[in-house]
Design brief:
Elements: E1 2-7, E2 10-12, E3 18-26, E4 28-39, E5 46-51, E6 57-59, E7 67-72, E8 77-82, E9 91-101, E10 108-111, E11 115-119
Parallel strand pairs: 2-11
Antiparallel strand pairs: 1-3, 3-8, 4-5, 4-9, 5-6, 7-8, 9-10, 9-11
Length: about 120
Amino acid sequence: QVQLVESGGGLVQPGGSLRLSCAASGSIDSIGVMGWYRQAPGKHRELVTYITSISTTHYADSVKGRFTISRDNAKNTVYLQMNSLKPEDTAVYYCNAYVTVTSRIAGMDYWGKGTLVTVSS
């Protein structure tokens, strides 16, 4: 099966930067769209950004101009570069990917366990 593992979360000061990574592993034939979601304390999970297999991107208005998503298909990895961080960016960030498993004709969504980002002085 497939596992998605996020890394790079931690404590950062307002205005600072952080880079998240999400590596997919397992019996992977191909990966389609990959994205990042986040869930702040007491809030619903929201889409932050996604990137397609051909690197078409989308960003939520709240992070546009500050966050950048990218991917390395050879490494089955997606990244999230976060700049000019604000306290309201504090959340658990979850990686999501549409993966086609070896010997299967249809793909499905997989989720990471999340990594905590705390923006505070």
